[in-house]
Amino acid sequence: MNKTAKVVITVMIILSNLICTNMVIADDTNDDGPITKDIIKNESWEATGTQLPRVSAGAAIVMDAKSGRVLYEKNGYKRNSIASTTKIMTAIVAIENGKDDEDVIVSKRAASIGGSRVNLKEGKIYKLGNLLNAMMLRSGNDAAIAIAEHIGGSVEAFAEMMNRKAAQIGATNTNFVTPHGLDDPQHYSTPFDLAMITQYALKNEKFCKIVSTKSSSFEGNPINNTNEMLSLYPGADGVKTGYTGQAGRCLVTSATHNGWKVISVVLNCSTRSVRAQNSKILLDYAFGNYSTYDYLKQGQQISEIGIHKGLNNSVGLCSDKDVSIPLKKDEADRIKAEYDIPKTLEAPIQKGSRIGTVKYVLDGKVLAYADIKATDNIKRKDFYYYFDRIFKTWARLVHER
């Protein structure tokens, strides 16, 4: 082989490695430098006032974790590659269908996957709970495949479970092909769908505990959470990072201030520092411009309604759930409650039966709604009731004579 041929082959090998690396890299396997608090603190961004946040992320959203109200979005409903933020869905499906102490046998497919990994050994047995931590903290792709094969029987079957769950949640512009999120043209979601999936997942205590953990250990080795916001942003308590060549730097963050939790999503950022800065901008905008207004408490009586032919003349009405809405001050002045309930009801009435609805409307848009239910059982006046009334009236008249 001549010298020219050797050079060509060497160049081809290098290019091939670069291309393959770009295809499989996930999260911090190709870190672009450390992030310090100064990187976030020193950036000057508009966080309050009427000006909307300025973010360089290709797509972004910030959402109230309770009501699901979108407070800001940029290309929030556009399909994107989502890298390892995929693992949010992987984790919640595994948590709902498995137990921490279950034994998971690692396949060759899991052990040989590229990108970020925790170096699982083919044929070795691990506990499901430990794999979940390794997947969500260190973003182990090998752990994701091992979990998927254990829960679903195969990666493909588990992806179907993920898609069914997405549809159930209402994330209808999402399609999962893998449990790890390495680039695939048929694997995508949107900032809005990712926020909805996260909103659902955060209702699970085990999920919350995992994604809020800064550091742990796996097989005797320390593992640190790839989510930089846990250390940089006050109140940050989740959720998941992501990175591939196609998706760019991605981050889903949850943060809680004064009992109010919001979710931010940034996709396709150029560096870790940029995704941290963009996430901070969105969170600052939410916490700096909105306050939560509590309108209804589940089960608390809010009014009464008259009953026709009932043993009681009226019955109490209550909401079937809490209603809290994040609003700007001027929005709170304009929001209206629209009740749809009848003027009277016909007995009998069963406790908990749906009587009507209430909607909270801002500028023609429904921000929240609740069913209105009866607080008590109300029996109907029947033949025996009227007979008893006649008998008692007759007895009283006889006694008076």
TrEMBL record:
Residues 290-380 form the Peptidase S11 D-Ala-D-Ala carboxypeptidase A C-terminal domain. Substrate binds at residue 240. Pathway: Cell wall biogenesis; peptidoglycan biosynthesis. Its EC number is 3.4.16.4. It comes from the Bacteria. SMART domains: PBP5_C. This is serine-type D-Ala-D-Ala carboxypeptidase.
